[in-house]
Fold these 2 entries.
Entry 1:
Amino acid sequence: MLTQALIGDEGRTIELGWKDGSRSRFHAMWLRDNALDDKTRSAGNGQRLITILDIPADTRIGAASVKGGALEVSFVPEQKTVSFPAAWLSANAYDRDAARQPGWTDEATVRWTKASMQNSVPRAGYAAASHDRAVLGQWLSAVKAYGFAVMDDLPAESGALCKVSDLFGYIRETNYGRWFEVRAEVNPSNLAYTNLGLQAHTDNPYRDPVPTLQILSCIENTVEGGESSVVDGFAVAAALQAENPEGFRLLSSCPARFEYAGSSGVRLQAKRPMIELGPDGELICIRFNNRSLAPTVDVPFADMEAYYAAYRRFAELIEDPSFEVTFKLEAGQAFIVDNTRVMHARKAFSGTGKRWLQGCYADKDGLLSTLASIEHGFKEAAE
Ligand code: NM2
Ligand code: OGA
Ligand code: ZN
């Protein structure tokens, strides 16, 4: 609850006091730009109707008061009075005291290891997820928190993976097709289309932007071997940072290069770091794929030895069984990974039987949008 509003800096800032004793400062310019009235934002679609240039550069707060759980502010020289709900101010407060450390992630991201995850893999049945918004919401929210989830009870038939992407958004079509067959082939265009084991990796780091989600579904898997595993790249990156901060700095500040030119007419190239941080130090993307790493030419000569040592250590941690969650996909099962975070691997396979998986890419922004909309709907229903 909002208790107090104190104008400061000759009206250029305001300090709000909350019932729990905490305080949060806001700027007059910020508040004016984010006003919620129907002259500033369209009542219909919520989009902003004004530009920054419509706001006087010398905007100040002339008067402010707390009225019925909201903050009422009058801006000069516009002589405009608007109200901000306390809950909105609290949700949008930016006056943090602690600076965030490089590699930080938000509270919604939960890192995991084998110990915390092997016996609680998030999963849902397809029938329940497609008929019950609550079940779908829980499944999507697991993808947001942990970066992967399993789906059971799909039809064990070609194209079933589209049913999974249809639950939340859209397939991202690439040179591999709308979806692709993952099975051992003669003259494979990609090592995924063999019976070789695949080291834990993220897909398509040679693409920019990288596909943010991958779905792999199983139609048949009666071979010996061919188990799947997933590794939380954010957990591994944090472990590397803890034991070797300089190595983490090198992998996150020097670009790697990735390339795929395995089929005719395709030559994909990207230049991005293996551990990508956003401008404010947020850990935003892991790119790790031994098969498509190109020669690294953007590390200073003096740092290359340390860079390779960090790359090796990162790989050792990725292969450390304590980070690895394993399962064997059966016909009618699929899993989804956040391809910006969670790596996936498969064991080699051979012997009798057949292994036929299908894969596709999809966009995480659409998944998060569907999740937010489901959560918003539940919140409104509860009110
Ligand atoms: N496939 C399965 O990123 C990669 O090259 C991994 C991708 C061929 C679409 C395999
Ligand atoms: C892939 C892949 C794993 C598997 O197709 O990208 O990693 O289990 N496949 O075949
Ligand atoms: Zn893959």
Entry 2:
Amino acid sequence: MSGPLDDIVATIAETAPDVRGGLAGRRVYESGANPSGETQLAADVYADELLAERLLGVEGVSAYASEERGSVRHSDGNGDGAYRVAVDPLDGSSNLRSNNAMGTLFAVYDEPLPAPGAAVVASGFVLYGPITTMVVARDGTVTESVVEDDGTRRVVDPDLTLPDEPTVYGFGGRVPQWSNAFAAYVEAVESELKLRYGGAMIADVNQVLTHGGVFGYPGLADRPEGKLRLCFEGHPIAHVVESAGGASSNGDRSLLACTPGGLHDRTPLFVGDERYIERLEAALSG
Ligand code: F6P
């Protein structure tokens, strides 16, 4: 017996080989920009269209939203479905031209979008690295699977938890744009952990899930709201990391306690080891 949440996760896994297979020929930029004003690669648009079609075909899904489209798309047939899926179809897609890792990130909400973090009922990501893996958070448990070429999943860790011993960190944004308080925090972190930053949030957070540590993209002097989007990046990655025993923050409180005003709202974002998130909040509040 499978329910809508199983079907949503299976649909994303089954779509992963198609997204991956379509990358090589889609490293060129489209003429338009996404709703956040960023250039789109043909691969962003391709992944978004595949996921929209397939997820809106899942029984129980009434709406699909993505970083690549301005408004929520509603299902024709399942208008009263309980679940709304928010997707970043290709997180870190600027890594495509340099052939570095990137991924597909999703959150399933049981309220209309844009919804509060408390409405996330499942979340996860596909990581297109040397192999394709999928991490899914549901009911307080995180599983990691390898996604085979036919879209089937082979579980490699049925209960993924953040390692107790933190090892790595990665922080985005240009250093001169950081606040003094954040820069002082980073100086302390740098003396304790080692840098791992690749420019795709999913890949960078997966390093934290694997090795322990902390990832963040802070508010910047010229962009106090930060770069990452609450609905498409903040809520899903916070739900994954918190379900794995870690913590999340917007600098002040858990990202899952945050409610977006608009679908494409951005947020400062910090996830990882609970002690490092606590220290970050203390540093930023001082
Ligand atoms: O979604 C935006 C994104 O690609 C994230 O995956 C990543 O963490 C960030 O931007 C990288 O930004 P920057 O190029 O400023 O390091």
